[in-house]
Write a structure and sequence with these properties.
The chain is of the alpha+beta class and 235 residues long. 28% of the residues lie in helices and 32% in strands. Strands 1, 2, 3, 4, 5, 6, 7, 8, 9, 10, 11, 12 and 13 form a 13-stranded antiparallel β-sheet that branches. Strand 9 (183-186) and strand 10 form a beta hairpin. The protein is globular. It starts with 8 loop residues before the first helix and ends with a strand.
Length: 235
């Protein structure tokens, strides 16, 4: 797995310094992006993650498969009730790497991806953009947002985990902005300053101090929003 050729790191660094966030299209070689997307779309055992008032709850993939439509609707109803007044989120996840280690499952493309994210070429690429030589590794989780999934506004700061920047490797083909699922940035005045539509083979970088959220995927969205996300951290 490799970066696509001809990235302009100096240009990326100037944009990141000015705005604290950056969208890089066509970040991987096309064949590598397609291989990872195939793994996410057809061979990944998704857990259901619910964030309730800063607590994370996971329903394991095997338990999720046993849940009836009625049970899933009940989960949605409870999440939406609380979401009107406090911090909430709901989406599918698969934890890949906590401390930069290769993914421990049996999906070859995800093993290769976590190795790539922690190999010198990628980490040097990120250090050059962010200007931070203190980045030592990338943790990672795969995410899938289906209709009704969302994540409320939050910061990514965590001093104990030494997070320096956040990343979203977007692997969502043929998405329309009206389907939702936008990575959205909020300014000090509470207004949206910028939003990135789910995209194909794109890397979004942001400072952990940037307030952001994922807008709700519309009930009429005919597809799922796939990405691999995490933080670039020091040891």
């Amino acid at each position: 797995m490799q970066l696509a050729p001809d990235h302009d790191v100096e240009l990326y660094a100037r944009v990141f310094r000015q705005f604290g966030r950056l969208h890089i299209p066509q970040v991987l070689r096309e064949e590598d992006a397609r291989r990872v997307h195939d793994a996410l779309a057809s061979r990944t055992p998704w857990n259901l993650t619910v964030i309730h008032d800063d607590h994370f709850y996971d329903v394991a993939a095997d338990e999720l498969e046993k849940m009836s439509e009625e049970q899933l609707r009940a989960v949605d109803a409870e999440v939406y009730e609380f979401a009107a007044r406090q911090y909430e989120g709901k989406y599918r996840t698969l934890r890949l790497s906590e401390l930069g280690e290769p993914y421990g499952g049996d999906i070859p493309e995800l093993i290769e991806l976590t190795e790539f994210l922690n190999d010198k070429p990628f980490l040097d690429f990120i250090r050059g953009i962010t200007g931070s030589e203190g980045i030592d590794f990338a943790d990672a989780q795969a995410t899938c947002y289906v209709k009704g999934d969302f994540l409320h506004p939050h910061f990514d700061t965590d001093a104990k985990k030494k997070r320096i920047a956040a990343y979203v490797l977007s692997l969502t083909p043929k998405w329309k902005v009206e389907w939702g699922g936008l990575l959205t940035y909020v300014g000090p005045d509470g207004h949206v300053t910028e939003a990135y539509t789910p995209a194909w083979n794109a890397l979004n970088l942001l400072r952990v101090e940037e307030l952001h959220f994922v807008s709700c995927v519309a009930p009429f969205a005919p597809a799922s929003r796939y990405s691999v996300t995490g933080w670039l951290r020091g040891r």
